[in-house]
Amino acid sequence: xxxxxxxxxxxxxxxxxxxxxxxxxxxxxxxxxxxxxxxxxxxxxxxxxxxxxxxxxxxxxxxxxxxxxxxxxxxxxxxxxxxxxxxxxxxxxxxxxxxxxxxxxxxxxxxxxxxxxxxxxxxxxxxxxxxxxxxxxxxxxxxxxxxxxxxxxxxxxxxxxxxxxxxxxxxxxxxxxxxxxxxxxxxxxxxxxxxxxxxxxxxxxxxxxxxxxxxxxxxxxxxxxxxxxxxxxxxxx
Length: 237
What we know:
Membrane topology: Multi-pass membrane protein
Pfam family, one: T2SSF
Shape: elongated
Subcellular location: Cell membrane
Helix content: over 70%
Keywords: Cell membrane, Membrane, Transmembrane, Transmembrane helix
Strand content: under 5%
Transmembrane segments: 176-196, 202-226
């Protein structure tokens, strides 16, 4: 018998016998398992997205502290306010490097530096720029000691950042619990798929399953939103 005839005979035997029961069951189990794993990955990505604004706000706070420290040092070295701000801004890595350019231009050309600082301050993490704008207005317009005021602002910002990190460390357990609870539905789908119950076939197979799926996703989303809201309130307190 030639090799081609043997290959045809093996193919015919496989088509007649079909795949084994174990292979069929394995395929049925793996399909919903893969779909449940994809749902869990999407959920993890959405949870990771929640922390991005917090990281950006923290980067702005750290940059504001560095700006105040550098500005205080430049003023103590005898430079003018405009030169000190220009040099201090160039030495700090801001999350948005273009945001402070109007303030530098205003300081160089004699413009309204406090207004430029307030315009550059982000909604979250811009507390340092707000305080710096107030110090600049008091030091340049009223005639107070700008270097002393900015140094005090830097100290208060450092203390506030240390307090914020302490609160964040205490809230780490609540964040971990929220992530665990949010992932439990996907884990339940994986366990059901592993037991051969085919939960995704029920969820996507009819109006009752779709209604249960919609209600579960809505409740899970509401729980995540409410937990995140509570954590943000605790961080701002």
